[in-house]
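During the no-cost extension, the postdoctoral fellow (Dr. R.K.) reprocessed legacy sequence entries with the updated structure-token encoder. One reprocessed record is reproduced below for audit purposes.
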Amino acid sequence: MQKKGTIALDYSHNNKLIVESSSFQDFTNFLFTSGYKLGKIQAGFDSLKKLEQYDCIILSSPNNSKLSEKEIEVLEKYVRQGGNLLILSSMGGDHTNRTNLNELTNYFRFYFVSDTVEDSMNYLNLQRRPLITNITPHIITDQVKKIVFSSACSVKVMEFLEDNEDIKIEIVANGGLNTWHRIYDGKDWIEEDSPKIPLLVVVEYYEGKVVAIGNLSMFSSLGSEYGFSAFDNNLLIANILKFLTSDVVSEGKVITINLNLDLFHWTNKVLKDQNWENVSDVINLAVKYFKDNYSDAIKEIKRKREEKLAKRIAYEKAQKKIEEESSEDKILEMIPVRKREDLEDIMSALEEVTGEKYEMTIDLEEVEEKAVEEVTEEKIEVEEKAVEEKFIEIDGVKYTIEETKEFKKQSGGRHHIWHGKLTKGFKEWLEDKRKREKISALMKK
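Re-encoded structure tokens follow.
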């Protein structure tokens, strides 16, 4: 069973959140039923040793009271060395509450704005009770979908003057697109639009952690529609306290993953060579790096995918071209056409290339007869000369008129000439005839 942490509430600066008050009864009951050990700081933050006995300190909206320079120094050192703070403010920030929380939060690179956050579209009964759904995934927002910020101020993250790896700030809740606020500009209260205004920040500061909310009403029991029990307010508060009182890095959430075998062996080698604690540390670091560099990593992944897709498309086009050329070669090999069967083969090959269906619409025998009739005068002279000389010679092949008639009869009407040249079928028939005649003559001898 998880060991619950120790929490101290500040009672030394006229703080609004005190466990004895009926205004915070639901929150108080939660603390006791959850097993947290509670303490009170009533003499101020004058001793670091006194603070070190607590895992977390709740500093809740001091009213007409300020932290001393000494107290601020002690609190900063407490967090730097591994302590944790939950800092709460309320509408109007330091100006309205007449306090100086921002002198402390400046160390953590944020401050509470002197304003009151409202929403003109998404609110509960009153515009100063905006419903917040613009929530960033984080340990403290796990399963949190909607929260109510009633009578709250916003927070402002300060820009870093220099890179500091020991300080990391995350905004985990923002107002909506219709958020606006009343803000004190140093002289007057003015109204201005403030879409997506920051409302909740988490800071990892050296060895410690800080969570800051400008919404004390979230802990209240006075209004069920906006207080501790409203929507996911209590879940958010429970997550925050767990985050601030436990070692979330080692405790974490146990999941099962399928790790690539090569990556598994590489990870084991890193554990051995670099003395890492365990595989979880390596995976957590990798996921954290991916999270911090998410935009650049996604762009690189998309770029590689597009390159891979372009190569695949080019390859498929090349393959298709080869297949088309192969089909065309198959068709060309069938020309000249002598039989109906040849034409049907060509039509079948064309169907493979075009995907269309073809039908025979001409009489092939008619075309062949006409083609034979369209011989040149030169060929006619050759045939007439053959009558006198008993044979015909074309392309070095000699044959007689009688042989052409015999071929036509045996082949079912096929002709021996096509476009002025002897057909392959006639040449083969003639060669076979000569062989048979030669064999017959030898047998007679």
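Residues 312-354 form one domain. The chain is about 40% helix and 20% strand. The remaining legacy entries will be reprocessed before the final report is submitted.
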